[in-house]
């Protein structure tokens, strides 16, 4: 069965009758979960199964933002707390091999949690490179301020997810680290010259261009396109994301409902596809907005469909794994990082 080129959220811990009708009629390619959708492991697993059943697609991707730190949709008492990216960065500075090991272990443990629930995609890793004057929305989620280090830790996180049978989504391409505003509320403009962006922000993403999926940044880079954020900029997508960075996987937008984008939801959705994104993401579970997104979303076809198929095909079965031993090793490494930074 064909699908439409969007990923949608839903409103709560169970599907409503209008949501079931919407999913059957509009055929989203995938789904994304948030804290409002989470109560217990059994409930989440049942919701994930129902999403796929209603969609009529056993392999429909179900996404979540499970980074650790401030961005963790699954948490106590049913799921453990995971460290933010800055912990891996700190440990990397002490011993790069241990920093990479900790990042890989954390992601592998997260993948095990997600696999238990049937969640197949994690919106991780970040390759954003923050600067001192930036908004704190990235902050300690980042893996450092040096592009090579950021890319190395992001690669380790990717490996951990993949070893656990979970697909990664690289974000926020081509970089959110310089943004002086939180894109949930406002559109930031970065005025850094192109050559410096190439050396820093874009450079962190380039070694990760082989990842199967990436999420755009709602950020204007005036040196490339002063009028549009990367998400709705054909120039940014063709020249920077597909060109200079070389990313050829499935490109999804960041959330359509974020206030960094201008116009109504329908306008935003049209602009996302006109710019060259393969898939639009809508997160807030508002059924009227969901309908507006669906109304402007094409069938998933052509090159976008090829990329979507390739992304799903990249997911491998989980490798053998001793969860208790991995958790003990990660805890020991976190303790070491905390001691080093004290």
From TrEMBL:
- Name the InterPro entries on file: GH (IPR017853), Glyco_hydro_3_N (IPR001764), Glyco_hydro_3_N_sf (IPR036962), NagZ_Beta-hexosaminidase (IPR050226)
User: Where is each Glycoside hydrolase family 3 N-terminal domain found?
Assistant: 20-294
Q: What is its EC number?
A: 3.2.1.52
Q: What is its EC class?
A: hydrolase
Q: Lipid metabolism: present as a keyword of the record? A: no
Reaction(s) this enzyme catalyzes, per UniProt: Hydrolysis of terminal non-reducing N-acetyl-D-hexosamine residues in N-acetyl-beta-D-hexosaminides
* Molecular function terms from GO: beta-N-acetylhexosaminidase activity
Q: Is Hydrolase found in the keyword set? A: yes
Q: Which UniProt keywords apply?
A: Glycosidase, Hydrolase
Q: Please provide the Gene Ontology terms (biological process) for this protein.
A: carbohydrate metabolic process; peptidoglycan turnover
* Family indicated by similarity: Belongs to the glycosyl hydrolase 3 family.
PANTHER family per the UniProt record, alphabetical: BETA-HEXOSAMINIDASE (PTHR30480:SF13), BETA-HEXOSAMINIDASE-RELATED (PTHR30480)
* The protein's name in its UniProt record: beta-N-acetylhexosaminidase
From which lineage does this chain's organism come?
A: Bacteria, Pseudomonadati, Pseudomonadota, Alphaproteobacteria, Hyphomicrobiales
